Amino acid sequence: LPGVPKDKVAIDLEDNVLTISGEHSEEKVDDGEKFHHVERSYGSFRRAFRLPEGVKSENVEAKYNEG
Question: What does the pLDDT average to over 16-36?
Fold first, then answer.
């Protein structure tokens, strides 16, 4: 999840469905000699994955390392 801070990511596991969701935002500023340009992007995302049969949900782990 490049560019998404850890505090903006949620990971849930319910009924054998792993859901990863969050929000991202970015602002780019370009100051030229005769102009000022600001570009902003933002949005939310959500992905859900059904875990295969036989997976023990209590053994599922997640790690986050700088996006």
Answer: 89
CA-to-CA distance for 23 and 1, rounded, in angstroms?
Answer: 10
Query: Is residue 23 within 8 Å of residue 42, measured between CB atoms?
Result: yes
Task: Quote the pTM value.
Answer: 0.69
What is the per-residue pLDDT across 31-42, written as a single tens digit (0 to 9) for each?
888 888 999 888
- The neighbour count for residue 34, using CB atoms within 10 Å, is 4
| Measured CA distances, 3 to 7, 8, 9, 46 (Å) | 12, 10, 11, 16
Q: Which two tokens stand for residue 56?
A: 């023990």
**Cα–Cα distance measured from residue 1 to residue 40, given in angstroms and rounded to the nearest whole number:** 18
